[in-house]
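for ur thesis appendix - Phosphohydrolase. copy paste whatever u need, i formatted it the way the template wanted (i think)
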Amino acid sequence: MSPTEKEIINNTRDYVKRSLLNAEAGHDWFHIERVYKNSLLIASIEPCNLFVVSLAALLHDIADSKFHKGDETVGPKIANEFLTTQQVDSETLNQVVKIIENISFKGGHTVKKHHSIELDIVQDADRLDAMGAIGISRAFHYGGYKNRLLYDPAIKPNVSMSKEQYKKSTTPTINHFYEKLLLLKGLMNTETGKKLATKRHDFMLDFLNQFFAEWSGEV
Ligand code: ADP
Ligand code: NI
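the 3d part is after this line
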């Protein structure tokens, strides 16, 4: 007998948790759990296929290309193989794999090759986790991992840098706010995502004001 949708979701959760046991803190199981919860929150308001949203949220970072020499086909392939073991119907499987292929930010320059409300929802949930207090924490964690400066007044943000140039650069972490994090609010797909993004966006602006005030010795 094929597993039920509920069983498949539980199996997927267990599988992802096991796979990400040694993942770095920006892309660990807790990131997945937050994205999953935010996806369900948005999905409770926006009509969609909840099974597809759940599986895509759980599997969206199963193999981040950053950690596979930039190979963006590894994640979709692993997800495909896992969902096949769960006897997921081909329609659902294809939708989930397409979401994983298209979810990444990529500087917002790449045109999405797949369109669905389910992709919009999981992408919004993933972007929300790069904003607000969690987003700030993740950015400085990533900057520390890359041994980047917190800030350097002599290095101005460069919003037109390609992802490749960016990876090789030694851009301070504060610049990442201007190059990506403050752009996310304007990229939200769903009305619910937009509403949730506003508070997190404003929190980042408050943080930056305080940061610069402290930097210049004003407070
Ligand atoms: P996603 O996995 O959501 O597509 P990324 O892999 O690009 O996004 O980034 C994961 C996390 O690491 C995000 O919180 C992001 O802001 C942060 N991050 C990525 N690149 C940088 C950077 N150059 N400086 C600081 N933080 C970064
Ligand atoms: Ni993610």
